[in-house]
Design brief:
The chain has 181 residues and is mostly beta strands. Helix content is 10%, strand content 35%. The chain has one helix and ten strands, in the order αββββββββββ. The longest helix has 19 residues.
Length: 181
């Protein structure tokens, strides 16, 4: 009886789990993008191109209070999408690549102190981009604790990206409607 229940549970869960994986690991990233309501707190245009997955390879510099390294973004985009718009605030962008090729990007002006800036990246047909960057010591989402502030006597770092502070430590589409793994 238990084996049948397990099999039944797996059969019911499989379609839901496979739907979550759409766009991941080389699966068609040109998927239809269901429309999302406009988020006035993001520069993103997720109906054209949307971040699905973020992989981070970062180093923490406790003396300077910055993170530096790479964010690899997997993107779903309409077939005719030429660019993706991300949210950034206080980030220093060193380069953006698709594979071995450096691509053009523009960090626009911050027209609103809270929102930061739009970062527009040319996709050139790619659905994966790698951004080499560094945060600012004043990144709102990063809390740097000195050794005197911790029970272990060691420095400690934690992040808190709500509500729109993730853009201060990761170049991404910083909107709750744009779900990312």
């Amino acid at each position: 009886m238990l084996a049948r229940r397990t099999l039944l549970a797996a059969a019911v869960a499989a379609p839901a789990l496979s739907a979550c994986a759409t766009g991941m690991n080389g699966v068609d990233n040109r998927a239809n993008l269901p429309p999302l309501p406009h988020d006035p707190h993001s520069h993103a245009r997720p109906d054209e191109a949307r971040v699905l997955h973020v992989a981070l390879d970062l180093r923490a510099d406790f003396q300077r209070k910055v993170l530096s390294g790479k964010a690899t973004l997997t993107i779903a985009a309409k077939p005719d999408a030429h660019e993706i718009v991300l949210d950034v605030k206080g980030l220093t962008i060193h380069s953006v690549r698709t594979g071995a090729t450096e691509v053009q990007y523009v960090v626009g002006a911050a027209t609103d102190e809270e929102l930061g800036s739009p970062m527009t990246v040319q996709l050139n047909g790619s659905r994966t981009i790698v951004i080499d960057y560094e945060t600012s010591p004043s990144a709102g989402a990063l809390q740097w604790l000195d050794p005197a502030q911790t029970a272990s006597g060691k420095p400690f770092l934690f992040s808190q990206g709500e509500s729109i502070l993730t853009r201060t430590w990761v170049p991404t589409q910083d909107s709750p409607g744009i779900r990312q793994t």
